[in-house]
Here is the input.
Amino acid sequence: MASSQDNVGRVIPHKDYVLRGGDLNVLIGNHLYRVHSYFFYRESLVWRQMLEEPVDGEEHRPTDTPFTLDDVKNEDFEHFLWAIYNPDYSLYDAPVETWLSILKLAHRWTFCNIKDLAIRELEKLNIEPIEKIASYHEYKINKTYLLPAYIAMCKRDKPISLAEGMKLGMETVLRIADARERARQQAAESGVRSPTFDDFEDIQLEDMVREVFGVQPRPMSPTRHSRNSSGAFNGFGGTTFSNGFTAQKANADVTSGLNGNGLESATHTLRVSTGVADPATGHLPNKHLRQPTTKEARGINLIAGGKANHDDSAGFRDYVHGNDMIFVASIQV
Here is the structure.
């Protein structure tokens, strides 16, 4: 990015984005945009640093000195500004290509809220699996959103072409091949002769695909400063340890809990209420939960499966109490 107008011909004010009260001038090619620096300063650390950077020894950049974006397309920037200044308020009706264009700049400039908006809208649209996988990988979006696309690629009869392989990348192609081979091997071991991928239900492939691609449970829909899209932490605000257990600090206003008598009768899923992670770091507030010991992890996992004995229950309680957590029961008996 530069801040001069060298080698630019006659400047043409953009027909839609020379806005009243605008104090940020942006030049792309010979098109001039005048927008409000407030949104760029508030939402993007990248732009905040650019706006605070002095020019030619002056303490503050003059408002009439434009930022020249040599490596940004006018079309992409127009789409990006539309996401900010959409006149229809919460109605964001746009095709896949527009949202991918917005996503590209939001990721590049760390506009986290706009990136989450783009993901949310893309999830409503029908995107070809290869395009979705390639784009979500490029912009570092949590792989949990790609589980259906991964499964679709694993079930596809048609082999991956050279062009598709180049777009996906070698690692993804190899992982798809691994999942497909595991599915065939599993079918052969179960006695199925000449299995086709039509013989497999998505649910049968899901666990296998999760393992091959390292996919965690699907996060909640992206919300303000959730950072879900980055995959920095899981979708429930918890820290995921290497043994697969997710520890979560409970909200202070939740009071229901378990007594020592109900643990052995649990038959379904164990869950601890969610905490709110620091939006800047993705960590839980004021607390870094330690990794469970082997005994504690066993207790956690067995309680979740409804198979805990007294010693296992004690191991789980040791972990909860050791981290000053409030354990909230969502165990069905």
Observations:
- The longest strand covers residues 12-18.
- The beta strands are 12-18, 24-28, 31-35, 67-68, 239-240, 246-247.
- DSSP finds twelve helices and six strands in the chain.
- The first helix runs from residue 37 to 43.
